[in-house]
Amino acid sequence: xxxxxxxxxxxxxxxxxxxxxxxxxxxxxxxxxxxxxxxxxxxxxxxxxxxxxxxxxxxxxxxxxxxxxxxxxxxxxxxxxxxxxxxxxxxxxxxxxxxxxxxxxxxxxxxxxxxxxxxxxxxxxxxxxxxxxxxxxxxxxxxxxxxxxxxxxxxxxxxxxxxxxxxxxxxxxxxxxxxxxxxxxxxxxxxxxxxxxxxxxxxxxxxxxxxxxxxxxxxxxxxxxxxxxxxxxxxxxxxxxxxxxxxxxxxxxxxxxxxxxxxxxxxxxxxxxxxxxxxxx
Length: 281
Known about the structure:
Blueprint: H1 4-15, E1 18-24, E2 27-31, H2 38-41, H3 55-63, H4 69-79, H5 83-99, H6 103-108, E3 112-115, E4 130-136, E5 139-147, E6 154-164, E7 179-182, E8 185-190, E9 196-201, H7 203-219, H8 226-239, H9 245-249, H10 251-256, H11 261-279
Parallel strand pairs: 2-6
Antiparallel strand pairs: 1-2, 1-8, 3-4, 3-7, 4-5, 5-6, 8-9
């Protein structure tokens, strides 16, 4: 079993090292997080006194190992009197801790995004503005996104839950939500290097992009085959942008976007195909 500190560090690597841009129809949600959000996602707000292990306090306690996996059960036994309540709290906390490691997959594979309208579901304890839902086998992961005070369309994570297909209330978090948005794509941006990469794109979005590239090439008088189009799509995905004809012709500019050997290989493979086609125009 992983330690609380290791779970914290692994979650920080996914949520805090990167910003995520979630593209839905006519909107882009900018998801950004700091490490102080993680204790809440881990369920540590249910331990001890109010806010004892939340935010800055929880982050400090985890880093200094003032709270450990071994002390979780002790704190639940101390602050929850009945055995049934203790069992339920431990189950909820362990579900969070056991599944936070799947957040990376949640962002990079098919998920659904539900809009939560608080005014239409006043009885719910769920306090997020959006809910990202991901089904992985028998598990259903739920990540809540709440509006930030920093600006329009900026969000951060404020809840994480896991249910299972055999749970009677497996869909309780989104059962009555009035609207659902399909995710078109998710772009991940490294906060330090500002390098962007498309880590998820729907089949429909890929098809639209392919048609767009074909039309762009035709307008430039370039007869593009499937191999060249796929090479351009790989670059678009790797760099998280839609490359125009001028950008594709800028060899130095493409190489400047590379951050590692894999990027350079992709660019080199494209340039060898592009040179032949572009010179024939």
